[in-house]
Amino acid sequence: MLPIAISQETNFKEVDCFLIECSKWVDNENVVFGKLYVPENRELDGSPILLLAAVILRSESPNPESDFIIYFDGGPGDNTLIMIHLFFNHYLRENWDIILMNSSGLGYCQPDFCKWLEAEVFDLIASNNSAEEMSQIKTELTTRCFE
Length: 147
Prior knowledge:
Elements: E1 11-14, E2 31-39, E3 49-57, E4 68-72, H1 84-88, E5 97-101, H2 117-126, H3 131-145
Parallel strand pairs: 4-5
Antiparallel strand pairs: 1-2, 2-3, 3-5
């Protein structure tokens, strides 16, 4: 777990559900959708603002721990937020809030650097490529995204 410094430059705003399928989450008070507004570069005055998509899964405890768990997916092009189903019933929610976040430039974030990348990664996962081939193709896709 990493310590996160929240500063006056950080601003979280609740928003309506932005997932493709919201029916399970829209009336659930323990699920909060939001956008985190952060500077692209905290060391530069006037740095462009990025909007990072987040979902907060509130703890099931009436007295949750004061700290929380933040989960980012590790692969380029991976959309953490579509894993909400996996974390909704996770045992860690018994005592902690779990915050799911997409990395900047990915689905539901702004700017969305490579809108096409997520679909390409899903197609790649469905392919019959070896793990080594998949890794090489994923690297090529990610490189193409940032060219």
